[in-house]
Design goal:
The chain is of the alpha/beta class. The chain folds into two domains: about 10-30 and about 295-400, Aspartate Aminotransferase, domain 1, CATH 3.90.1150; about 40-290, Aspartate Aminotransferase, domain 2 (3-Layer(aba) Sandwich), CATH 3.40.640.10. The protein has helices at about 10-20, 35-45, 60-75, 90-100, 125-135, 150-155, 180-190, 210, 235-240, 275-290, 295-315, 340-350, 360-365, 385-400, and strands spanning about 25, 85-90, 110-115, 135-140, 160-170, 195, 215-220, 230-235, 255, 260-265, 320, 330-335, 350, 355, 370-375. The strands form four sheets. Strands 2-8-7-6-5-3-4 form a seven-stranded mixed sheet, with helices on both faces. A four-stranded antiparallel sheet has the order 11-12-15-14, covered by helices on one side. A two-stranded parallel sheet has the order 1-13. β9 and β10 (about 260-265) form a beta hairpin. α2 (about 35-45) runs antiparallel to α10 (about 275-290), α3 (about 60-75) crosses α10 and α12 crosses α14. Its cofactor is pyridoxal 5'-phosphate.
Length: about 400
């Protein structure tokens, strides 16, 4: 079965890796970058870098315009409407911590925060630590056999004491789209705030946050073919009014004297200090590139490649898939084989996959696993990549068995 990628040439690092006999199958951790992004960052630095929002000179005006154009592009990508609802952070983890500190004043001892059993540490630890600081109850929604949040259990556990629900859109370990409409409806029935970790989901398809109806949605640029060090926090206008400032310094101040200060509202009020200017401009260029693609063709390519991966894994004796992955990735273990040993032998053969707990240690512990191998795909991968992976996997298993 041939699954070529018509976009492979748009990512110069893929050709470089191929010359080094490397096959990159770790895009759920971070993606390779399109030429459009490299060009945009090079142009910014080569034509006069400057700080944003703070200077009247021409380089500053150009930088500010490009920076704010990117905010508008993110708003369009998410169908936000008002780009004032888009806050730039230093990553999804940074955005989630901003929420955990910025919303802290709303909670009192005995209130409940609800997460799920599959959360990445970035969407677990900020709420876990908030619960400790404010004497809150952290409620963990269990999963069903397919790796989905159990809706019957959720209906029992989300109740009148629930003040906030924070769940992932797409599991970075199980590759399963979570039942967000039902979960959000349960939370809204009790007037709870809702936070969606879109770090994995943002990469696959276009997601309309207005239709989704969440209060907050976060993602990282580096997983969406953009630069690292940049994150996005979307907040509904009404929800943003509840946020208190959590970092203080330049840019976010309206007025200041030695003993008091007033602060800007969102978005600039939550972008203290010099932001990742080049990265934000680069993210805008990446979104321009992604917008130019035939989205149905991209989705069809991802689906065909994912099907090829799943069929190949299921055909091999002793391989057990974790959950029922829907898109782009598959995590698996092999009976009698330690995941670290297998990852080592794959690495020696030039196959770049992820091994371990994937920043979801409680989930792997609940499965009584020390770790797993994860293969994750992007629009630049093709069936030749998977053929190389399967060949290396077979050789590694022959040695280990």
């Amino acid at each position: 079965m041939l699954v070529p990628s018509p976009w492979r040439a748009d990512f110069p690092a893929i050709a470089t890796l191929q010359r080094q006999d490397q096959t990159y199958l770790d895009s759920a951790a971070t993606t390779q970058k399109p030429q459009a992004l490299l060009d945009a960052i090079s142009h910014y630095y080569a034509n006069g870098a400057a700080n944003v929002h703070r200077a009247q000179h021409l380089p500053g005006a150009h930088a500010t315009q490009a920076f704010e154009d990117s905010r508008n592009k993110v708003a369009q990508w998410l169908n936000v409407g008002d780009d004032g609802q888009i806050i730039f952070t230093h990553g999804a983890t940074s955005a989630l911590n901003l929420l955990a500190y910025g919303l802290e004043h709303l909670f009192k001892p005995g209130d409940e925060l609800v997460i799920s059993a599959l959360e990445h540490h970035a969407n677990l630890l900020p709420w876990q630590q908030l619960a400790k600081r404010r004497e809150l109850e952290l409620v963990v929604l269990p999963l069903d056999n397919d790796g989905l949040i159990d809706l019957e259990a959720a209906a029992r556990l989300i109740g009148p004491r629930t003040r906030l629900l924070a769940v992932s859109q797409l599991s970075n370990v199980l590759g399963a789209w979570q039942p967000l409409p039902q979960l959000l409806a349960l939370a809204k029935a009790h007037n709870a705030m809702t936070v969606i970790d879109g770090a994995q989901g943002i990469v696959h398809g276009r997601h309309d946050v207005q239709a989704l109806g969440c209060d907050f949605y976060v993602f990282s640029s580096h997983k969406l073919y953009g630069p690292d060090g940049v994150g996005v926090l979307y907040g509904r206008t009404e929800a943003l009014h509840h946020l208190r400032h959590w970092q203080f310094g330049g840019e976010m101040v309206q007025q200041a004297d030695y003993h008091s200060a007033s602060f800007r509202p969102a978005p600039l009020g939550f972008e203290a200090g010099t932001p990742p200017i080049a990265g934000v401009i680069g993210l805008g260029a990446t979104l321009d590139y992604l917008t130019s693609l035939d989205q149905p063709a991209v989705m069809a390519h991802e689906a065909a490649l994912h099907d090829y991966l799943l069929r190949g894994l299921k055909a091999r004796n002793g391989v057990r898939l974790l959950g029922s992955p829907h898109v782009a990735l598959a995590s698996f273990v092999v009976e009698g084989v330690h995941n670290a040993d297998l990852a080592h032998l794959l690495t020696e053969q030039g196959i770049a996959v992820r091994a371990g707990h994937h920043c979801a240690m409680p989930l792997l512990k609940a499965m009584q696993l020390s770790g797993a191998i994860r293969v994750s795909l992007a629009l630049y991968n093709d069936s030749d990549d998977l053929e190389r992976f399967f060949e290396a996997l077979d050789q590694a298993l022959d040695m280990l068995r």
